[in-house]
Specification:
Elements (H helix, E strand, L loop, with lengths): L3 H4 E5 L5 E6 L11 H10 L11 H6 L6 E5 L4 E2 L4 E6 L3 E2 L3 H5 L3 H5 L9 E6 L4 E2 L1 E2 L5 E2 L15 E3 L5 E4 L4 E4 L4 E4 L1 E4 L10 E3 L2 E4 L8 E4 L3 E3 L7 E4 L3 E3 L3 E2 L5 E4 L3 E7 L2 E4 L3 E14 L3 E3 L5 E9 L2 E7 L7 E5 L3 H37 L4 H35 L6 E8 L3 E5 L2 E5 L3 E9 L2 E6 L1
Parallel strand pairs: 15-17, 16-18, 17-19, 18-20, 19-21, 20-23, 21-24, 22-24, 23-25, 24-26, 25-26, 26-27, 26-28, 27-29, 28-29, 28-30, 29-31, 30-32
Antiparallel strand pairs: 1-2, 2-3, 4-8, 5-6, 5-7, 7-12, 9-10, 11-12, 13-14, 31-34, 32-33, 34-35
């Protein structure tokens, strides 16, 4: 009888998480094997965990089913990071970080002020995660979530437990990822105009009208605009909420340490450290988000411009039927890519300069040994030595920065573009240094980076 290992073989993936059985030769009518034979073969390979015993009979009865995955390990589930759960007034409690991103813009605009002694937040501790196991039975440790120390924000206090946060004044909540402030409120009951002028306030700012072009608002807390923002400058150390949309005309700036919530962005310039939440459209704009870009409600389309998100982009449509050029950056924003390019050029220039300086210094040293140096040559040698020291420092700094960029570029493996409807041609997709130009339309797809290749996968 032919040994089972001459007919079948097992391929194990490099990460030891999956085993696939293949058939090396066809069975003749006289040769038969049992499930126990296949199980013995599996154990000969040292595979003891995640064996799909219910599929082993199929190996013997259905040649068309091969190759067949007959064992799979369990990947570890990493722990969740600790986070600060805001508790808004009127029992509007946010139970997790994702819910905070889904808060309706109009509800946020109408959040009433908090009062002295009111509970406004609670720390949710990090979790340890669940370990996994590969097909050889080796345990794979989970990465525990990162915890954080709850600290009081402006005009808040922490209770004795160290987990609950209370307001110490009547004011307006301003929520950041790991701290909540309560600020006094500055309110304009109408449009911002010359009578009011520019605003620079240590608390939250609430404009019940529009912000015309040319005006500036600087706020230590949140900025809430009930109307439209034209090509104005809004800079907030909290979040920014614009009910009727942003019409930037390529000018002005919307900048926040928190999130941006708005209905649409047209020719706007946006830089936020948190998420960008848009309920209609992003048109011909430059948008940079340190978190996610959400544009999947209403029209939910992104057309033209450059959109950067450190995490994910969730959108209905990207581009349009006119093939308007649109660029999406995932994981690393455009500015960071430009900085990386500049440091690479600086390093190359410094290395070239170092070669020239080293050669010049060597020639001066040689001349000094043989015939001596004139006074001006001695000064030149001193200058060259100093320039060598400065150039070497420039090289070291550039190398350190490039190492930092390299580390940053490798941290966006889980970033994704989720297309809920359609992505059109002439859209450029960048994952760090990797780029893919979309040349044909795709519907209902996820775009992600895998093994150095940008993949377009159907949902």
């Amino acid at each position: 009888m032919i040994p089972v290992d001459e007919v079948f073989a097992i391929k194990v993936d490099n990460d030891k998480m999956k085993a696939t059985i293949i058939q090396k030769m066809r069975l003749d009518e006289e040769t038969t094997f049992t499930v126990e034979d296949i199980m013995s073969l599996i154990k000969e390979y040292g595979i003891i965990y995640g064996i799909k015993e219910e599929l082993l009979y199929k190996v013997l009865t259905d040649e068309n089913a091969l190759p067949l995955v007959i064992a799979e390990g369990n990947r570890p589930i990493n722990g969740e990071n600790g986070f600060l759960k805001p508790i808004f007034p009127n029992t509007m409690e946010v139970t997790n970080k994702d819910d905070l991103r889904k808060v309706d813009l109009k509800q946020v605009i109408n959040i009433p002020s908090v009062t002295h002694g009111q509970l406004i937040g609670e720390k949710i501790s990090a979790t340890q995660g669940t370990p996994g196991k590969n097909i050889f039975g080796e345990e794979l440790p989970a990465k525990p979530g990162k915890d954080f120390r709850l600290r009081p924000g402006k005009n808040t206090r922490i209770d004795e437990s160290g987990f609950k946060l209370y307001s110490t004044i009547d004011g307006q909540m301003s929520v950041e990822p790991k701290v909540i402030h309560v600020y006094p409120l500055y309110e304009v009951n109408g449009d911002l105009d010359l009578k009011t002028g520019n605003i620079n306030f240590v608390g939250c700012v609430n404009i019940r009208g529009n912000v015309p072009a040319g005006f500036e608002i600087h706020s230590k807390g949140d900025i809430k605009i009930h109307g439209t923002v034209e090509s104005a400058v809004l800079i907030s150390e909290g979040s920014i909420f614009v009910s009727a949309g942003i019409v930037g005309q390529g000018k002005g700036l919307i900048k926040a340490k928190g999130d941006l919530h708005t209905s649409f962005i047209n020719q706007g310039v946006v830089e936020v450290e948190g998420d960008v939440n848009v309920t209609q459209s992003i048109l011909h704009s430059k948008v940079q988000a340190g978190g996610n870009v959400y544009c999947h409600k209403g029209n939910g389309n992104i057309v033209g411009g450059n959109i950067s998100a450190a995490k994910n982009i969730i959108v209905k449509d990207v581009g349009n039927a006119h093939n308007t050029k649109t660029t999406l950056y995932l994981g690393v924003n455009q500015d960071l890519m430009m900085k990386e390019k500049i440091y690479s050029e600086n390093l190359q220039k410094a290395e070239d300069d170092m070669k020239k300086l080293t050669k010049l210094l060597s020639n001066l040293n040689e001349k000094e040994k043989t015939s001596g140096l004139a006074a001006n040559e001695k000064i030149m040698k001193l200058r060259v030595r100093n320039t060598v020291i400065l150039t070497n420092e420039t090289m070291l700094q550039a190398k350190e920065k490039l190492e930092d960029f390299k580390e940053t570029f490798t941290e966006f493996g889980n970033s994704m573009i989720s297309i809920e409807k359609q992505i059109f041609p002439n859209v450029d997709v960048h994952f760090g240094k990797y780029r893919r130009k979309i040349s044909t339309p795709h519907q209902y797809v996820n775009i992600y980076l895998e093994n150095g290749e940008i993949i377009i996968g159907h949902k």
